[in-house]
Write a structure and sequence with these properties.
Radius of gyration of chain B: 23 Å
Number of helices of chain A: 0
CATH topology of chain A: SH3 type barrels
Helix content of chain A: under 10%
Largest interface: A-B, 10 and 11 residues
Structural class of chain A: mainly beta
CATH class of chain A: Mainly Beta
Structural class of chain B: alpha+beta
Order of helices and strands of chain A: EEEEE
Largest sheet of chain B: 10 strands, antiparallel
Oligomer: heterodimer
Distance between the termini of chain A: 20 Å
Helix content of chain B: 25-40%
Distance between the termini of chain B: 48 Å
Number of strands of chain B: 23
Strand content of chain B: 25-35%
Largest sheet of chain A: 5 strands, antiparallel
Chain lengths: ~70, ~475
């Protein structure tokens, strides 16, 4: 289990890694600590997601991409 | 006359032939529970004002009956009124009084809704729900009908209710007295400052009855009159123009709305007012002159009134609207909104703010008088002995007139001229007549006798 990230503090443009291994760039942060709006940059499990914008649940975010 | 279930509301708990009303309608928990379904889930209720949500994403958390609702403007600019309860387990999705949001997120399990009420975020949608949940079935619950009238926003949960303006009927011109500008231009009101909210230990119908037009309790405010909280440093209000006017009770039958109003003679000149501030006095003198040229309502002066069931108007001095939100049979949460013309000078707005809060609200001197009466009357009506004895509403019974006209001014509904009589209980009887109709009727079809009358007239004309 990874340490939880404070997603409220993540700025637009930040890249994060999801539990599925997918990489997402933050396009908007409503600041509720629960959701982010992000665009898929990579998704090995489901390549069709690349380019799609979706709401990203906080618990799905496991790491920041340096 | 305690609870008499066999006789029902009409001629039982609310006997307007004799003018007697049981105390049970104020203190009985079962009646209160029934009111939530019969009255508050079917009526048009005041929710807020457009000036509270000018921009996309703006929201104001309001109430309809006991329930929390979100008044918000979505990203496309459309106004919505949404039940503030997550479709998954019911948690409030918005716990702020107001603000701007992209989404409303439930803090319990994280379901998230757009400002249009659409369910946009479900945690583990793919993993836990296997992408099978139909998200379109779980939007936030939205009101059945919504109406924005001169900036005020009203809503009802009942799709069968008539449109808002039909619900208002002939009372519309009295609501206009508050929403139109002091100079007679249409719909100039905006909210001044925040909403004052507080809880009082009485049934919601106490203040509703009081604001229906109880002029009989003026003795309660005598100390405030003596202190002189008015904008001219005397009494509660400026009475110069009222001394020229006829003082009237106007009740709209079949609708349950009623008010005090003052009718001025034709060709009346503006009277001095707001003399505590020469600049403010000059502003109002200018407005009054413009109003006389411009407004069809220019011979009427607004005064306390009530839109059924729980919205009270005080259109003139101070210019405020109150909502009596039911909490329990024995508790009411009062929300008081203060209004001012949006293009009034800052100095005028500041002057009025001071006057408004000196008069109304939890710290207002006049409202404190009223609350003392309501709170103690309610408490003293709960005992087993007290509940056996009904209240009398006999004052002025049978003395209202229809088709009232005075010097070319015609008024709708049933009118009592108070200029000599000083007081009547016709407005209270009108309120409780409508309340009893709501409590007894199975559907809106029974609550719209005017439609049946109109249909009968059409049928006769066709014959």
């Amino acid at each position: 289990m990874t340490e939880p990230l404070n997603i409220r503090a993540l700025a637009v443009g930040t890249r994060v890694v999801l539990g599925s291994g997918a990489e997402v760039e933050i396009v908007s942060n409503p600041g509720d600590g629960i959701w982010l709006f992000g665009r898929y940059l990579a998704s090995a499990d489901d390549p069709a997601l690349v380019g799609a914008e979706e709401m990203i649940f906080a618990q799905d975010v496991i790491a920041l991409r340096p | 006359m305690a609870l008499n279930a066999t006789r029902g509301y009409h001629s039982g708990l609310v006997d307007l032939t004799s003018g007697l009303i049981s105390r049970e309608i104020f203190v009985n928990d079962d009646i209160y529970a029934q009111e939530q379904e019969r009255v508050f889930a079917r009526s048009w209720l005041f929710v807020g004002h457009e000036s509270q949500i000018p921009n996309p994403g703006d929201f104001f958390t309001s109430r309809m009956g006991e329930e929390s609702v979100i008044l918000c403007r979505d990203r496309a600019g459309a106004v919505h009124v949404l039940l503030n309860s997550c479709r998954h387990r019911g948690m409030k999705v918005c716990r702020y009084d107001d603000g701007n949001a992209t989404v409303f997120t439930c803090p319990y399990h994280g379901w998230s809704y757009g400002t249009d009420g659409a369910l946009v975020g479900v945690p583990f949608f793919r993993e836990a729900y296997h992408s099978e949940l139909d998200r379109t079935k779980y939007r936030l619950i939205e009101v059945a009908q919504l109406c924005s009238y001169k900036g005020t926003i009203w809503a009802t949960w009942d799709a069968g209710a008539p449109p808002f303006l039909e619900y208002l009927g002939g009372f519309r011109r009295f609501l206009d007295l508050m929403l139109d500008g002091w100079d007679g231009r249409e719909g100039q009101a905006e909210l001044l400052g925040g909403v004052q909210k507080w809880i009082i230990p009485c049934n919601w119908k106490w203040p509703a009855e009081n604001f229906s037009g109880d002029t009989y309790h003026n003795i309660s405010h005598r100390s405030v009159d003596l202190v002189g909280v008015g904008p001219s440093g005397r009494s509660r209000r400026d009475y110069g123009e009222l001394n020229l006017a006829r003082k009237l009770h106007v009740s709209i039958p079949d609708r349950g709305h009623q008010t005090i109003t003052y009718a001025l003679p034709p060709d009346h000149a503006p009277q001095a007012a707001y003399q505590n501030s020469p600049e403010v006095a000059e502003y109002f003198r200018h407005c009054e002159e413009a109003r006389r040229r411009r407004s069809a309502n220019q011979r009427l002066i607004g005064a306390p009134g009530e839109i059924f069931p729980n919205t009270a108007l005080l259109p003139r001095q101070p210019r405020t609207l109150a909502v009596w939100h039911p909490v329990t049979a024995h508790q009411t949460e009062v929300w008081r909104f203060f209004f001012v013309d949006r293009d009034a000078p800052k100095q005028v707005k500041n002057f009025l703010r001071d006057y408004y809060i000196r008069y109304s609200g939890p710290a207002g001197m006049t409202e404190q008088d009223d609350m003392e009466n309501w709170n103690y009357a309610h408490a003293a009506s709960r005992g087993v002995i007290a509940r056996r004895h009904p209240y009398t509403y006999e004052m002025g019974l049978g003395h209202a007139v229809e088709n009232y006209e005075w010097d070319g001014l015609r008024l709708p509904g049933r009118v009592v001229d108070l200029t000599k009589a000083q007081a009547s209980e016709e407005p209270m009887r009108n309120l409780y007549r409508r309340w009893a109709q709501f409590m007894q009727a199975e559907s809106w079809d029974e609550l719209m006798p005017w439609r049946h009358e109109a249909a009968a007239v059409d049928a006769r004309a066709a014959e």
